[in-house]
Amino acid sequence: MAKRALITGITGQDGSYLAELLLKKGYEVHGMVRRSSEEKFERIAHLQGKVTLHQGDLLDQFSLAALLSLTQPDEVYNLAAQSFVPTSWNQPVLTGEFTALGVTKMLEAIRHTRPQVRFYQASSSEMFGKVLEVPQTEDTPFYPRSPYGVAKAYGHHITVNYRESFKLFAVSGILFNHESPRRGLEFVTRKVTYNVARIKHGLQDKLPMGNLDAKRDWGFAGDYVDAMWRMLQQDEPDDYVVSTNETHTVKELVEIAFARVGLDWQKYVFTDPAFVRPAEVDLLIGDAAKAKKKLGWEPTVRFKELVEMMVDADMERVKAGQR
Ligand code: NDP
Ligand code: GDR
Hints:
Blueprint lengths: L3 E5 L4 H12 L3 E6 L17 E5 L5 H11 L3 E4 L6 H6 L1 H22 L4 E7 L22 H20 L2 E7 L2 E2 L8 H13 L6 E3 L5 E2 L2 E2 H12 L7 E3 L5 E2 H11 L8 E3 L17 H7 L7 H17 L4
Parallel strand pairs: 1-2, 1-4, 2-3, 4-5, 5-6, 6-11, 7-10, 8-13
Antiparallel strand pairs: 9-12
Helix pairs in contact: 1-7, 2-4, 4-5, 6-8, 6-10, 8-10
The structure holds NADPH dihydro-nicotinamide-adenine-dinucleotide phosphate (NDP) and guanosine-5'-diphosphate-rhamnose.
NADPH dihydro-nicotinamide-adenine-dinucleotide phosphate binds next to helix 1 and strand 5.
């Protein structure tokens, strides 16, 4: 019998890669989607007919329980969240409801409806926040610096708590930034690669940016969803850092992206205070030694290759008049 998986956030970047991976492995894949006035599920359009979509919302506890009863999944991947850090200062309550309490709603639904499920929670390196230790590991204390980071820390702790309290197979992947040509346009990598492509095509001549000194450990989303799956195949539930163990500044990102199309970034980029955050996470670099040892997981795409892959994809898109 094929294993069944339920993915919340299937329309997002990670959801689309995870659905592809699970289909390749022979899973029956179900995805939860929010109702909207126009159903534009661009990232999973190519999977139409291969995945089954169901309406539901992390805010609606009963929709979660109903979905578990209907789909009878072996594995649940909880990827849905308000995931953009700046928005979390504008909508802190909503962010808390989706990104923090939404996790409890799903865990409660599992506990009462289908306790044998293996549950993956999408935790984040944003929980580390202020630099207390580098590189960051599973044991590094959390000091989140945004309402998003605070909400993710709650989601992380409640996942651990349900594992310990109710013996659920619940794991939390502490994933560092991961990107791809499917990344949302407001995140810094995609913002840069998309705008570089527009500049190269003569559609604009300036790029406003925030803090160019922030450092991130950036990997490829396709690699990271494989780590999620591996976590749920272990004998015991546990938490893992997933990262490349390298860090780079936003400035390096900008330099590589412009250089890819033969342009000098300094002629186009300027600092706009609108993109500077009220509190910043200055330095993230993860130590994924545990994931390597226990899951046999390693990243296959490094920073420069990742940025160039994204620039090349955006050059094609812009040329074709797409976003
Ligand atoms: P995206 O922003 O691309 O996708 C988020 C998904 O969540 C979308 O499918 C969105 O649906 C859905 N969603 C949001 N709110 C709700 C809700 N109330 N009910 C149902 N669905 C909802 O995120 P990513 O794919 O990049 O990230 C996946 C998860 O991993 C997120 O939880 C994120 O916080 C976390 N994470 C991401 C990292 C990264 O670098 N990408 C690193 C660490 C953690 P819709 O299409 O309707 O908006
Ligand atoms: P982040 O990703 O906040 O790390 O969260 P983002 O790409 O938004 O920012 C990374 C860094 O770049 C700096 N920066 C800018 N960021 C944006 N978006 N726009 C700009 O113009 C800009 N200029 C500089 C930021 O200040 C920051 O330091 C992502 C999300 O995917 C989360 O959901 C996830 O949990 C974490 O990664 C790990």
